[in-house]
Design brief:
- Strand 18 (about 605-615) and strand 19 (about 620-625) form a beta hairpin.
- The chain is built from 22 helices and 24 strands.
- Helix 1 (about 10-30) runs antiparallel to helix 4 (about 120-130) and helix 11 (about 245-265) runs antiparallel to helix 12.
- It is elongated, with a radius of gyration of 34 Å.
- By secondary structure, the protein is α+β, with helices and mostly antiparallel strands.
């Protein structure tokens, strides 16, 4: 009895017998010869033929996966992404040397035989019988192509790949039947073209064009004889004959190919001998795959585009369907990224904050009225090393951002003002606005519910000198906490959350805002993109547009190019033009004479709001002109760093305000982004000034919330210790930090549970 190999495999003799049986069967089928019930090799021919006939007649040939190219709005390349690095080319764009070399070494009788080479089978049988094992196979190029189709269809699924490559009788029979069909359907030249585009050449290169670029940095049509022979030789064993890692072995294999080409008459012996003497002369182009390779500091935007594609039902009902299209590739995606704006954002970030700083910054710019994202950047680049991160601080969790976003401080106050004005409140509305007061209780919430200050929490202003009465214009300019808490207690929580719903303002995890008065002070985590898009609504006089990053997509499959649909922005009216104009007037005052003076632009109408959170863990500036809106966040991704006595961008800060770090980043980013662009004006509303001079304290960003008895330390954070700013996530099970600060103690009467204590501090300007 023949011995089996370790692991229970078949002996070489058994393998040879099985190989012969399959090959003879295939030849017989091709020739239309009836087989006996059983052959000398013990092959149950009748059953095998039945199985052969049961195989579906048509081979599914999936489109070959290719590179996807991502472009900016001007058509310049940002990055290439792919599951397999491949560029499909026609046979006319492949060097004749390579065509001849691959045929000579892999299947010299390719143009003489059908799908199965019976002479090759007999030659292999004789060779294998002499060696006592399986020393030589007899697969034709057509059969190899079919096998590669099985592998391509398996994709990256290791189980399916194993099934596509396993050496079994059933797979071999299936391969042979489809080879017959392919010969009939495609013809020799098309089979060769397909084979050269599908096969693997090592070093992550699939197909001859990618291989030519990888090893020689040239197109496949320009390959010389020695170069073509080298590539043809790699196919049999890409790891063994890898010229990058083993030049000697690759050279030896190349020379074998050259000699074979001479033997079959493709080249003369003299040509072969001359080519053998030529050094390999590799000019390797290393693989540059994925958003991490994106130029113009656009890696995070690139990842946002990928997420936008995979999250959009435009490209399939399920994420699996969408991923299949993305991985198939061949896409050319033109995006909304404006190179001028992107360069300005990154330049400003680098000028004001260092990659090595203990805090990070993110900035995003959008176009009012269209939702186009024109720039997206951050101070810590995309990567996996120290002071690098994979987390896109500009966006929410579903788009690759932080778990919860970042508390916004007083940048939330304009939403409260918009809700009040839309509901009929005059911009001259006054409140007593004491320096310190208990959170009003009860406060009307939606659906007849009420928020109760059950823990007797207080809210206070930044300085003891800040006490009212104040009207809305001055309260906004000076960012008076107690004013906006009194306002939200009077109008109720529901008008505010209704307004933020219209502005699509949600928490970083996608959940709606909670109904608690502390939302007036920016106690919840929100992404910079969400804030920029909401403020763009003020700029466009009350019309909110969903953010978009993709302008057009084409896909090239099988030599044909087609356009794919793209997610369109949806624009809806969130507030009246008068309300938006009034908010614009109020926020222009913030820059003209309030907390945001350091952020203002000198050459055009602009408006904005500063924000700083409790313990100065986050600082913001969100601002806009009529034709561009932007948000800048500075803070610790893990929410651990208190920005007091801190050096940022080489400058020492005793206390960080929204005006003195995020504000200048916004100012410089907007200045460069808008250079050479029109400077339209706001529609300003006349808001009477009470004429009182309450210049209580300096015009700094006097709006840090000191809710020492209120929002501070009344509950548990969202997460554990977590990591540093290089890759930590703000509060949450999946990332770093103690969680973002929460809401003042209390609960919603009439519903289960409460909102008490989500973190370690409240929020303010």
């Amino acid at each position: 009895m023949p011995k089996k190999r370790s692991g229970g495999g078949q002996s070489p003799t058994q393998q040879a017998a099985k190989f012969l049986g399959v090959s003879v069967l295939a030849g017989a089928v091709l020739a239309g010869i009836a087989l006996p019930a059983a052959g000398a090799l013990g092959l149950a021919a009748k059953g095998s033929v039945q199985g052969f006939d049961d195989i579906p007649a048509n081979l599914k040939r999936p489109p070959l996966s290719q590179r996807t190219t991502i472009l900016d709005s001007q058509g310049s390349q940002l990055a290439q992404v792919y599951s397999r690095d491949r560029t499909v080319v026609e046979l006319k764009d492949i060097s004749p040397y390579l065509q001849k070399a691959i045929v000579a070494i892999e299947d010299a009788r390719f143009y003489q035989h059908g799908a199965i080479d019976l002479k090759g089978v007999l030659r292999a049988l004789n060779k294998n019988a002499t060696s006592g094992g399986v020393a030589q196979g007899a697969s034709t190029l057509t059969q190899q192509y079919v096998k590669n189709v099985f592998v391509e269809e398996a994709g990256d699924d290791p189980t399916k790949v194993a099934q596509a490559t396993q050496q079994t009788l059933g797979r071999k029979i299936k391969e042979l039947k489809y080879a017959i069909q392919v010969e009939q359907d495609l013809g020799k030249k098309r089979i060769l073209e397909n084979y050269l585009n599908i096969t693997f050449f090592g070093e992550q290169a699939y197909g001859v064009e990618a291989a030519s670029q990888r090893y020689f940095s040239k197109h496949a049509k320009d390959l010389t004889l020695p170069e073509a022979a080298l590539l043809a030789g790699i196919v049999q064993s890409p790891s063994r004959y890898d010229p990058v890692n083993d030049e000697a072995e690759a050279t030896k294999r190349r020379n074998t190919v050259l000699q074979r080409m001479a033997e079959v008459g493709d080249i003369s012996q003299a040509e072969a001998d001359a080519a053998k003497k030529v050094p390999l002369k590799l000019k390797v182009t290393r693989p540059r795959n994925g958003c991490i390779t994106a130029v113009k500091d656009s890696a995070f935007f690139c990842k946002y585009v990928e997420k936008a594609f995979l999250n959009s039902p435009v490209y399939g009902k399920t994420r699996t369907d969408r991923a299949k299209i993305w991985n198939q590739g061949g896409l050319t995606i033109r995006t909304t990224l404006d190179p001028q704006a992107q360069a300005s954002v990154q330049s400003s970030l680098k000028d004001h904050i260092y990659q090595s700083d203990s805090v990070a910054s993110a900035a995003v710019l959008v176009e009012p009225g269209t939702g186009r994202i024109v720039a997206m950047g951050q101070s810590k680049p995309y990567g996996y090393g120290k002071n690098e991160t994979e987390i896109n601080y500009s966006v929410g969790n579903d788009a690759g951002g932080s778990n919860y976003g970042f508390p916004t401080g007083s940048t939330f106050k304009p939403f409260v003002a918009a809700a009040a004005i839309e509901g009929g409140k005059a911009p001259t509305q006054e409140y007593s606005s004491p320096y310190k007061m208990p959170y009003p209780s009860p406060v009307q919430a939606c659906d007849g519910k009420r928020w109760l200050n059950s823990y007797h929490e207080d809210v206070e202003n930044e300085n003891t000198s800040e006490h009212g009465p104040y009207a809305m214009k001055e309260a906004m300019a000076k960012s008076i906490n107690t004013y906006f808490v009194q306002m939200i207690s009077e109008i109720g929580l529901c008008p505010v959350t209704t307004m933020t719903d219209k502005l699509h303002v949600v928490q970083g995890d996608g959940k709606k805002l909670p109904q608690a008065p502390s939302i007036a002070l920016g106690a919840v985590g929100i992404s910079p993109l969400t804030m920029a898009s909401a403020y763009a609504t003020f700029a466009s006089r009350g019309t909110y547009c969903t953010p978009v990053a993709i302008e057009s997509i084409t896909q090239r499959i099988g030599g044909q190019t087609k356009a794919l649909p793209v997610p369109k922005t949806t624009c809806t009216r969130a507030m009246s033009e008068k309300t938006a104009d009034t908010v614009n007037t109020l926020l222009q005052g913030v820059i003209d004479s309030g907390t945001g003076q350091q952020a203002g632009l000198s050459d055009r109408d602009n408006a904005g709001k500063t924000g700083t959170t409790d313990e100065r863990k986050n600082a913001w500036f969100v601002g806009y002109t009529p034709n561009m809106a932007g948000a800048v966040w500075v803070g610790s991704a893990s929410q651990k760093v208190k920005m007091t006595g801190i050096r940022i961008g080489g400058i020492m800060h005793d206390l960080v305000f929204g005006a003195d770090v995020p504000g200048p980043i916004w100012r410089d980013a907007m200045t460069g982004a808008l250079q050479g662009k029109p400077a339209p004006s706001f529609n300003i509303i006349d808001i009477p000034d009470p004429g009182k001079d309450k210049n209580k304290g300096p015009d700094k960003d006097k709006n840090k919330d000191k809710n020492k008895g209120g929002d501070k330390g009344k509950g548990r954070g969202h997460g554990g210790d977590g990591g540093d700013d290089g890759g930590g996530l703000p509060g949450g099970p999946a990332g770093g930090g103690t969680g973002f600060p929460g809401f003042p103690g209390g609960f919603i009467q009439g519903q289960t549970g409460g909102t008490h204590g989500n973190g370690n501090g409240g929020q303010h300007g």
